[in-house]
Every structure is written in C-alpha cells, then in structure tokens.
Amino acid sequence: MKAAVKEQPMASAASKYKRVLLKMSGEVLMGDREYGIDPATLDRIAGEIKEAVDIGAQVCVVVGAGNIFRGVSGAANGLERVTADYIGMLGTVMNALALQSALEKIKVPTRVQSAIPMQAVCEPFIRRRALRHLEKGRVVIFAGGSGNPFFTTDTPAALRATEMNCDALIKGTKVDGVYSADPAKDPSAKHYDRLTYMDVLTKDLKVMDATAISLARENHIPILVFSVKEEGNFARVLQGKGRFTIVTDK
Fold it and tell me: How far is CA 9 from CA 4, 6, 12, 49, in A?
C-alpha cells in the first residue's frame, strides 16, 4: 500500500515590483497611543516588511516623525520654522532606529542612512552604498528627510525612490487608498482604484504633497496607496492583490 503523499504548502506569489520604497507617517507607529511608539505596532510593521522581503522585493523605507514632533506645529507654537523642521528630522532618525531594531530582532538585515550625518548611530546617506545594501538584500531606512527644512517627508520619499531606481513608491496610510473626501468624516466619499498624477494635483487630493507627486510624475514612478493597518497588506499590494489606489501617468 502506497504511503500518502504529504501535500506541500503553495509558495507565495512573487512581488510584481523588484524594488520599492515604503513611505509611512510617524503616526502609524503610535498604534492606539496618543504619541510615541507602540512596541506591538512596531513589531507588526517590521513583520510586514519581512513578508515583502520574503516574496522577493528589495525594500527601502522612509518614515515620518509625526508621532514625536511636527515641524509645522512647532513653528505655530513659537519655534523658528527652520529649527522646528530640524527637530522633526531628528525625530525621523529616532523612528528609523526603532524600526531597525525591530527588523533585526526578526533577522532582517537593515541599514539606516541619514541625510543629516550622525555617524555614531547610523550611516550618512551615500547613494551607491545604499544601492549596494539593497542588492545584498538589506532593508535600507532613510532618515533625516532630505536634510533641508520646509519639506515634508513625502518629498524625500519621492526623491529617494528616484535615486534608488525604485519600481514603485508605496504609501502606507490609515485608509485603504485615496478617497474623494475623508471617509471617516464623509460616508459617501468615493474610493479611487486608479488615478493619474494630474488627477491628484488638479483635484487637490491629499495623497502626498505636490512636490512629491510632481517628482514621481517626472520620473514615471507609480504610487500605490494602501492601508498599513491591515495585517499582511503590504505583501498583498506588492503582489497586485487587495484594495489600494494606484497613481500613474494614465
């Protein structure tokens, strides 16, 4: 009598994109807290990135600092805008180091590169070195914004995606794509499956800031907007599955 053949689990579908940049706001790391970093949320996001690496994607990350400090809010409260923006940039380094620790805890090799040199804790941003890290399968986290005030972290995300020759810029948000209005406030808000860069700019849709959209448009980098709060969603989006909005030339 033949022994029963044990059924092998099906392999996960490979990523449709070879190299991507994941952009997240700092608020994502808060979880249900009012500020700071929620360890459980941090670990979950690290797991999401690991899943993306496991299906063959080369991943780089830009994370904001809204969970720690916002330059615009700081300026509104009396700080000089330039100083406030630099404080925000330092906040992105803190978030990047926390994410690096969470990733390395689950055996994902990681490097942090900062636009503001601080060699005691991370590497300075060097494009060729970052490309080499990605080729070796390391996750590269870009911190310190662009190193310049008066920009949100959306713009350096689009800039780094261009410099790294990324196939897509993935924007992780609290909702599952781009809507005509805030779905939390307007139940009739329409979800868009596909938009052009010009749609985003002319309709003033709050996907990313206008400078980032223009930079992605000039370099033909598609932007995929998805909910980072849904477990396993990052890998699904890279496989072309799940619910998201894609912003392209046409």
Answer: 15, 10, 9, 22
Q: What tokens appear for 179 in the block?
A: 């809507």
> What residues contact residue 171 under an 8 Å CB cut-off, 6+ apart?
23, 157, 207, 208, 223, 224, 225, 226
List, in order of start, the domains of the chain with CATH numbers.
19-248 (3.40.1160.10)
pTM: 0.90
Rounded Cα distance, 139 and 54, in Å: 12
User: In the 3-class helix/strand/coil scheme, how is 82-95 assigned residue by residue?
Assistant: HHHHHHHHHHHHHH
Task: Say how far apart CA 62 and CA 70 lie, in whole Å.
Answer: 16
pLDDT digits (tens, 9 = 90+) for 61-70: 999 999 998 6
Q: What confidence tens digit (pLDDT) does each residue in 77-109 have?
A: 778 989 999 999 999 999 999 999 999 999 999
Host H or E run for residue 195: strand 194-196
**Which bin fits 174, alpha (ψ -120 to 50), beta or left (φ > 0)?**
alpha
Tokens, residue 250: 């046409």
